[in-house]
Amino acid sequence: AALLGNSLIITAVACDHRLQTPMYFFLLNLSLLDLGSISTTLPKAMANSLWDNKAISYMGCAAQLFMLVFFVSAEFCLLTVMAYDRYVAICKPLHYGTLLGSRACVHMAAAAWGSGFLHAVLHT
User: Fold this and answer.
1) Is the pTM of this model over 0.85?
2) Of 8, 5, 1, 67, whose CA–CA distance to 36 is shortest?
3) Second label for 119, Cα 20 to 30 Å away, from 5, 18, 33, 40?
4) How far apart are CA 88 and CA 22, in angstroms?
């Protein structure tokens, strides 16, 4: 269900030019991060339940932990950026276009992804 829902969001935002606004840009990024966090743990969990094998190598565990921390912390940072987007849209609607232009949105999304990466590097 999550795979289908996130894929539909990504497809809709990428294909429809009317959805090329900051809110939908951030939703696209959130969907990508959600797909990443799902695909980090789910394959190993499915393999463990199918083959009744609970073993994982140290490097596999470290890689899985790094990716999970990266996606989850980047998701939290992106949710903070989305909250700022909604704050500006509600409290400063006349300044919305200047405060959240396309460059600013790309920079904020890149900062969220970069913050997630740094957080994962520090904790793995």
Assistant:
1) yes
2) 67
3) 5
4) 11
